[in-house]
Amino acid sequence: MVNSISKKIINSISTNENYNEDKLEQMEYALKVLLHELIKTILLITIFSVFGYFKEILIIDLTMCIIKPFIGGYHENTQIKCFVATLILEIGILSLSLQCNVSFISNCILISLSIFCIWNQAPIINSKMPISRPQLIRNNRIRGLSTSIFLGALSLALYNYSNYSSLITWTILFQAMLMFNKKES
């Protein structure tokens, strides 16, 4: 269904504009990814909202959306696997946030380790969507690091004022861990 919607939208664009076949293919791929991500996000927000975790899932998803595009990392090969993996990750982040009372020093250590991993690894290049221009790779690295540092600082600043601080910390940590990709077979 998403594929047919994407094709219809791209076909309507191509009749009005003068795009070559490569550009249309790129636009269709980007639109498919966006639609799949939108559907996945709406489903996840709905599921967590049913259990009373609307604000928490928004913070987790927002943190992931801000960091992940720039640092790369773990990807599944189907939309169903991606949905299930994301659901499991978000359950893990939420559970750790609710169950583990991390001290301020421990929070600083977790954020520092995460930022070190991101500094050391980012960006992870996805073989299915490789970026090869050195400038784009460098820009993604800088954006990934700077957003992680900003969100880490925000987590530390909110530590005494909000329980959402730990959601940000655990999400950054999970995103850093997921940079150490699964082995290709």
UniProtKB/TrEMBL annotation:
<dbReference type="InterPro" id="IPR006741">
    <property type="entry name" value="AgrB"/>
</dbReference>
<feature type="transmembrane region" description="Helical">
    <location>
        <begin position="80"/>
        <end position="98"/>
    </location>
</feature>
<keyword id="KW-0673">Quorum sensing</keyword>
<feature type="transmembrane region" description="Helical">
    <location>
        <begin position="38"/>
        <end position="59"/>
    </location>
</feature>
<keyword id="KW-1003">Cell membrane</keyword>
<feature type="transmembrane region" description="Helical">
    <location>
        <begin position="142"/>
        <end position="158"/>
    </location>
</feature>
<keyword id="KW-0812">Transmembrane</keyword>
<dbReference type="Pfam" id="PF04647">
    <property type="entry name" value="AgrB"/>
</dbReference>
<feature type="transmembrane region" description="Helical">
    <location>
        <begin position="104"/>
        <end position="122"/>
    </location>
</feature>
<dbReference type="GO" id="GO:0008233">
    <property type="term" value="F:peptidase activity"/>
</dbReference>
<keyword id="KW-1133">Transmembrane helix</keyword>
<keyword id="KW-0645">Protease</keyword>
<dbReference type="GO" id="GO:0009372">
    <property type="term" value="P:quorum sensing"/>
</dbReference>
<dbReference type="GO" id="GO:0016020">
    <property type="term" value="C:membrane"/>
</dbReference>
<dbReference type="GO" id="GO:0006508">
    <property type="term" value="P:proteolysis"/>
</dbReference>
<keyword id="KW-0472">Membrane</keyword>
<keyword id="KW-0378">Hydrolase</keyword>
<protein>
    <submittedName>
        <fullName>Accessory gene regulator B</fullName>
    </submittedName>
</protein>
